[in-house]
Design a protein that fits this description.
2 copies of one chain form a homodimer. Chain A is built from 21 helices and 6 strands. Chain A is mainly alpha-helical. In chain A, the strands form 2 sheets. A 3-stranded mixed beta sheet of chain A has the order 1-2-3. The longest helix of chain A has 33 residues. Chain A is elongated and about 95 Å long. The relative contact order of chain A is 0.07. Chains A and B meet through helix 3, helix 10, strand 3, helix 11 and helix 13 of A and helix 3, helix 10, strand 3, helix 11 and helix 13 of B.
């Protein structure tokens, strides 16, 4: 996190908002996507510095890298140094590998060392998210000493000061105190006597989704990152978590939509890369869906005898697909939020069994009435319309129940197998239900319509 | 936000973690969902106070209300007073209306007034999210004076101190300074000379999704909430935003899955309420899908002549549905993140046209090969298998393109009409594509197979 106000001009300078004599931030943001790389850079360099800073911080690391690498050399250093170490590390991670050393060389010595350490972590780990700059004091300092010591530290670049961390001589984390509490504590007490010792930490190699769950559950503003020996390495702050929450939701949503996660903004994703991520799953689903042609081939004779049966195939299989899509969506999201865990599977499946029965019954009733009304008023469905109506209604109950059961059960199975539950996407469940829906429909028909239509 | 460490016991008390002589937090959390209301309360009251506080803060407002209303009267007051005003307001909002006054009466006078003000705001507005407790100073104070003044304020309940807000005598917001900057400023300067004046604020009636976008884009830890006259009302902090981000993603995901958003955790949603939210959309989709039966009825003669055509119906319409599901998912998520805006529609539709052509071409090729191979090696598809193969392949290109185009276009249409784009759910698009897919398929067949099969 970089404090957005960190490098603004002297506060008595007039506000630059609403000044129409040059490019404004809003104008530039509005056309940003339409601009060529050169035009973006030109517009960016025309902005008043505070606006440019605002825009720069709001960009993705990927865009920041793009812009920076196209800047004149003299601007590059200033913008690179403007970033906090964790953001600078992100930017370098999103640059071409051969530019890495060049960009690192723009940083001052202290920051370069910090960034180099951060680059050694996987981007999705706590270590890759954390900032190495936090407020640290020693246990033997008094509250008053700590406050004036921190006032000095703050003059240099200090990431944040929501919490003050108490470390021993080996940088081992002993305790923490919130800034508010530090402020409210009697000045003469020692840090070791006012600090909290029952603290929640995350390990540097914890994946970002778990880190975000810890931070969200605890409601902390920042969580300390430690190594296996308890040595404090940095802090992950809530604003990093917000990005993680968005990223993880996007991944899940895209997987639920039946594709691989893009990992980049839609309009910025390379077209062929996007095609691969969509085409792969589409082809898999297509191959699965081919089983419907096989299943239908099996029932060719029935269809020949009673073409009327074919009319309701899309209606029946799509109803199963829709109910399955609802169930899998609900369960996958509830799992992602930690509301539903593996051991809840029986409760969920029981609930979805009941839901499938009720929903299937309702749709079956609507379908039954529709066919009977048409059957009575027109001759579309022949003399045996009542048999057809019963077949459709009963099949709907079966298919919708199969949809809710497989839609809710598959995510559990995926997780049990160590796979991502979100891969049990709506289209995946729909494909499964299509094939089995056909079997259910024709099986019901062969029982109910034997001797009349079949 | 309540600082989780606010009411913990004297810091020199031993840590309570890992103590196995009574109920532990982890044990209780593990079985929470399985417990009756009475057992939950009993377990909760058995926890050591710091653990109970941790658990209480991690609960939803709905659960907090449930628990509180079942507590003995003497415990109720202490837990109600433990919450920050914004959390207390949330709890009251999630309680039965007739309990509202009773719960308000548990608060001290100052907090009760604050909570009453907060309750007047819609829950989803900035005003409903904000905390009325923030660090405020006057412009004529010096930095040193401000710091010692804030040390006194901090001893009372102060929500947060990331930023210090400079207000005039009418509570109008003049400027702000981050705590880090305040700390680093020379002690003798006046607040009016060190504060920033180009500040981003949100209006008290701004909806929470927009507030979260402002906070996320700016990367601020807290954003001041003002009324139309610029009077400062409170602050919305980043931890409130994290919850909003999760809530909004959940809503979108559930709508994308083809249902109304539940607004409650899956397992805690009343069964019949859930049925209504799913059944409504399922019935609408079912009625839409009935058009497939009508469309199929229109082609009954063709099916009679060439039953082989019926075999590929599920394959073709589901491929359109899957490609449409991908497109609508991508566009809706990109809109929710602000990556794609209304005016980008033409770029998106062009991109999806190309994607549909490529993906449809690929699936068409697979389908063509499948039918030809079967046609040559078996007699399943009759003598005119080549005609059928061409029909299926060309239909696939058309149907998949229709899927990507309607999947990407519908969210724009929805937004243009002022509706929620997420209502253009995957099942909704699939239903649309099913009906038109049938028309495309039989139209292609009637052209290509006239004189042979038809």
């Amino acid at each position: 996190m970089t404090e957005p106000t960190a490098n603004t001009p002297p506060p008595d300078a007039p506000s630059t908002r609403g000044d129409s004599s040059h490019v404004t931030l809003e104008e530039l943001q509005d056309v940003w996507f339409l601009l060529s790389q050169d035009d973006r850079l030109q517009g960016f360099l025309l902005l008043p510095r505070p606006d440019a800073e605002e825009l720069f911080l709001a960009m993705t690391a990927h865009d920041q890298a793009d812009l920076l690498l196209h800047m004149p050399a003299q601007d590059r250093r200033s913008w690179m140094r403007f970033l906090a170490p964790d953001d600078a590390a992100d930017l370098i991670q999103h640059s071409p590998p051969e530019k890495k050393d060049e960009l690192l060389a723009l940083l001052d010595d202290v920051t370069r060392r910090e960034v180099t350490v951060l680059l050694a972590y996987a981007e999705d780990d706590a270590g890759g998210l954390m900032s190495p700059r936090f407020a640290r004091v020693r246990p033997e300092m008094t509250v008053d000493e700590s406050i004036s010591y921190l006032r000095k530290q703050a003059a240099e670049k200090l990431e944040t000061i929501y919490y003050v961390y108490v470390l021993d001589a080996h940088q081992k984390l002993l305790g923490l105190i919130s800034f508010r509490e530090l402020f409210a504590s009697p000045g003469a007490r020692h840090m070791r006597d006012v600090m909290h010792t029952d603290i929640v930490t995350v390990r540097e190699d914890m994946d970002q989704e778990s880190v975000s769950r810890v931070v969200k559950e605890q409601g902390f503003l920042a969580v300390p990152v430690v190594d296996a020996q308890g040595i404090m390495k940095g802090i992950v702050t809530l604003d990093d978590i917000v990005d993680v929450v968005d990223e993880e939701a996007t991944e899940d949503i895209q997987k639920l939509g039946g594709m691989e996660a893009l990992d980049e903004p839609y309009l910025e994703t390379d077209f062929f890369k996007m095609l691969r991520k969509r085409g792969g799953w589409l082809a898999v689903l297509f191959l699965g869906e081919m089983l419907t042609a096989t299943a239908m081939g099996h029932y060719e004779d029935e269809i020949k005898k009673a073409v009327v049966l074919a009319l309701f195939i899309p209606l029946i299989i799509s109803s199963g697909g829709n109910s399955g899509s609802q169930a899998t969506t609900l369960v996958i999201r509830a799992m992602a939020l930690g509301e539903v865990r593996l051991r809840d599977w029986w409760r969920v499946v029981r609930r979805e069994f009941a839901a499938g029965l009720a929903l299937g019954g309702a749709l079956g009733l609507i379908g039954f009435l529709r066919i009977v009304v048409w059957g009575v008023t027109t001759n579309d469905y022949g003399p045996h319309y009542l048999g057809v109506a019963f077949t459709v209604a009963i099949s709907l109950v079966g298919v919708v129940m199969f949809g809710t059961l497989s839609g809710s059960g598959l995510p559990f199975l995926m997780r049990r197998l160590g796979l991502d539950p979100a891969s049990a996407s709506a289209p995946f469940v729909a494909t499964l239900v299509d094939v089995s829906g056909l079997v259910i429909y024709f099986s019901v028909a062969s029982v109910l319509l034997r001797g009349t239509l079949l």
